[in-house]
């Protein structure tokens, strides 16, 4: 756990980037382009969920000195069976989600980089496995810090260059086109029906549960909290990430509106230039940034950084869960600390190779945002059960 004495700023940046994957960087602008601003409300709700995490969940986990999420079930129910059941579900869902995180950006980047998607899958999967195995949580946290800077740099560059482009015409025209096309009209649509694609209440309810599950009862987040020496430091990093989190999510989403202005009256989906909405973001970035040497490469590194940060966090968390929940009790006192470290490295390699292999079977899944959201919905049952157990007697 980084010696339980990691610096606050790198941990805060790592927490910020862990849940903002390449899927989000590509699919959220496409969603704004295609359907409008409602998806942005989901991220606003995320800031509220972060505050709830600080006030409700962190004190509980800190008091129990949990370094692995599923230790909670030993303290709460005194049942190793329940602990291992939830740990198994976490491992199953996470390893499948990691394969989606590897595959989705590879598909989007493949046409513009002119590298076959399966080579990109191997590059993403094996590179992340290598540095996560060598450096452990410290390498993950410090690399996430660098990747956060690349993410901000890439998105801000795209927005700055996009607004300057003659076909876009500045921020006022971008907003006017978004309003005229109806992309801003349904932000506060209060229709309570659940049999619809999106609404205010769907975003509030799903956003609250999703982000509570992500920040409050997720092994990826718990590891970062446990790497800090005190409860106050852990709470402070969450408060410190609120503004950067909503800024990054907002500017990523706003890219979709700039793309809408750029492709106004010439939708590349309708002209057949692209086959899926998921490709709109990278197509727009290529058109805007490629004329200036180096800028498109910066944006590609932004997407790759978002992908690698999520992958490294997932691999490290899976290794911690396997060791803490299944192996530590049996091996405690039988192996040295160095042997335990080597075993954890081997587990990281296994998880990384398995996720990479599974990515080769992700092709039939469809649109990346829809798949990602559907998969997160399937995780909610497990995570929300943990949420409810905090309040139960």
UniProtKB/TrEMBL annotation:
<keyword id="KW-0472">Membrane</keyword>
<keyword id="KW-0813">Transport</keyword>
<feature type="transmembrane region" description="Helical">
    <location>
        <begin position="237"/>
        <end position="263"/>
    </location>
</feature>
<keyword id="KW-1003">Cell membrane</keyword>
<keyword id="KW-0739">Sodium transport</keyword>
<feature type="transmembrane region" description="Helical">
    <location>
        <begin position="39"/>
        <end position="61"/>
    </location>
</feature>
<dbReference type="Pfam" id="PF00474">
    <property type="entry name" value="SSF"/>
</dbReference>
<keyword id="KW-0812">Transmembrane</keyword>
<feature type="transmembrane region" description="Helical">
    <location>
        <begin position="81"/>
        <end position="106"/>
    </location>
</feature>
<dbReference type="GO" id="GO:0006814">
    <property type="term" value="P:sodium ion transport"/>
</dbReference>
<dbReference type="InterPro" id="IPR001734">
    <property type="entry name" value="Na/solute_symporter"/>
</dbReference>
<comment type="similarity">
    <text>Belongs to the sodium:solute symporter (SSF) (TC 2.A.21) family.</text>
</comment>
<feature type="transmembrane region" description="Helical">
    <location>
        <begin position="200"/>
        <end position="217"/>
    </location>
</feature>
<dbReference type="InterPro" id="IPR051163">
    <property type="entry name" value="Sodium:Solute_Symporter_SSF"/>
</dbReference>
<dbReference type="InterPro" id="IPR038377">
    <property type="entry name" value="Na/Glc_symporter_sf"/>
</dbReference>
<keyword id="KW-0406">Ion transport</keyword>
<dbReference type="GO" id="GO:0015293">
    <property type="term" value="F:symporter activity"/>
</dbReference>
<keyword id="KW-0915">Sodium</keyword>
<protein>
    <submittedName>
        <fullName>Sodium-dependent multivitamin transporter (inferred by orthology to a human protein)</fullName>
    </submittedName>
</protein>
<feature type="transmembrane region" description="Helical">
    <location>
        <begin position="118"/>
        <end position="137"/>
    </location>
</feature>
<keyword id="KW-1133">Transmembrane helix</keyword>
<dbReference type="GO" id="GO:0005886">
    <property type="term" value="C:plasma membrane"/>
</dbReference>
